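Progress note, project year one: complex with adenosine-5'-triphosphate.
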Amino acid sequence: MIEMRDIWKTYPNGVMAINGMNLSVDKGEFVYVVGPSGAGKSTFIKLIYREEKPTKGKVYVDKKDLSSMKEKHVPYLRRSIGVVFQDFKLLPSLSVFENVSFALEVIEEDTAKIRQRVMRTLETVQLKNKARFKPHELSGGEQQRVAIARAIVNNPSVLIADEPTGNLDPETSWEIMNILEEVNAHGTTIVMATHNREIVNTMRKRVIAIDGGRIARDEIRGDYGYES
Ligand SMILES: Nc1ncnc2c1ncn2[C@@H]1O[C@H](COP(=O)(O)OP(=O)(O)OP(=O)(O)O)[C@@H](O)[C@H]1O
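Model obtained:
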C-alpha cells in the first residue's frame, strides 16, 4: 500500500530531514509514527501525500509512483489519500455539510446522491445533526470530526493524520481515536504521527519511531518508548 525505497529529503535550506528510509505498510494496517520534536515525522507524512518530494528515492502509494508523478496528477492522488491535521484546516465560511461536500469527487452524481453520501459520512462521525453549523459554532473535537468526514468522503485507501489529537483534551482525543479505529476497521490504511503516549501505549498497534530522519524502531505491537 505504502512503500518507501531509500528515501532522502534535504530541504532547500540544507536541513537533512530524512536520511535513508526504507519502509512498507500493508493494506489495512494502522501505524503510529512517533519520535522527538524535529525527528522528521511531519516530513515523512508529507512525503506520503506528495506535499513534499524526496530529494532521492521512491515513494509508492497504492502502486502509484509519487516521486515521478506529474503536478497535474496530484489532485487525483489527493482523492485517494485523506489527510487530517492538528489544526483541522476547515473553511470557516462554509457549513459542516459544505466543508465535506466541497471535497467530494463528483462524477456525474446528482444532488440527491451527493447529499446522501455527505450525510452518511457525517453520520459516521456523529455530526449529522450539525450539518448546517459553521466551524466556529463547533467544539474542537467536533471540528476534527468534520475534518475526518472530509478526509474519508471519497473512500480513500489511505488516511494520513499528523497529530490529529494535538489540540484536543484527553477525552475528546479518545473520541477521535474511536472514529479512526472504525475507519480502519472498514479497510482504510491509517498512518498517524503523534506525541500522545497514552494513546499509543493503550492501542498497541504498529509503531514506527523516527529519530534524526531515520527509522529507529519498527514494532508490530509497539509502545511509545522514549521519554519526552
Ligand atoms: N519546509 C521546511 N524547510 C526547511 N526545513 C524544514 C522544513 N520543514 C521541516 N524542516 C526541518 O526538518 C526537520 C524535521 O522536521 P519535521 O517537521 O519533519 O519534524 P517533526 O518530527 O514532525 O517535529 P514535531 O514533532 O516538532 O512536529 C527539522 O529540523 C525542521 O526544522
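The chain has one domain: 26-38+73-219.
The helical segments are 41-48, 74-80, 96-103, 111-124, 140-152, 170-185, 197-203.
No further modelling is planned for this target in the current period.
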